[in-house]
């Protein structure tokens, strides 16, 4: 993905995959190092704006920039956690931000 500054923003929802072990911590899951490196590369490219786990259920939420939902689906298809069924992609939804009080919330 090239210059993402004008691309729309998307919410990316994932849930625990079939091989996610909810009895162990996120960083103890198989393929953790590979997954973290993959996501860090997306951050470095400017495609991930926010992200993190949904700890009570083993899923995750990403806020990403991309020209369309299929671009995100294609890009995330190579994430070792999707490949190895630690996470399962549920939905990619376009998001228009109307309220932004983020700076005041930190």
Automatic annotation (TrEMBL):
Domain of life per record: Bacteria
Span of the signal peptide: none
Pfam families the record matches: YCII (PF03795)
Residues of the YCII-related domain: 26-96
InterPro entries, A to Z: Dimeric_a/b-barrel, YCII
Entry similarity comment: Belongs to the YciI family.
The protein's name: YciI family protein
Originating organism: Mesorhizobium retamae
């Amino acid at each position: 993905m090239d210059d993402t500054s004008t691309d729309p923003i998307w919410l990316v929802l994932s849930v625990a995959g079939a091989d996610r072990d909810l009895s162990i911590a996120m960083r103890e899951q198989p393929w953790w190092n590979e997954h973290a490196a993959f996501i860090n590369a997306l951050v470095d490219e400017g495609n991930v704006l926010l992200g993190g786990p949904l700890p009570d259920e083993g899923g995750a939420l990403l806020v990403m920039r991309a020209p369309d939902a299929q671009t995100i689906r294609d890009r995330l298809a190579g994430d070792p956690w999707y490949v190895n069924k630690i996470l399962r992609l549920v939905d990619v939804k376009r998001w228009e931000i109307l309220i932004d009080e983020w700076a005041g919330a930190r």
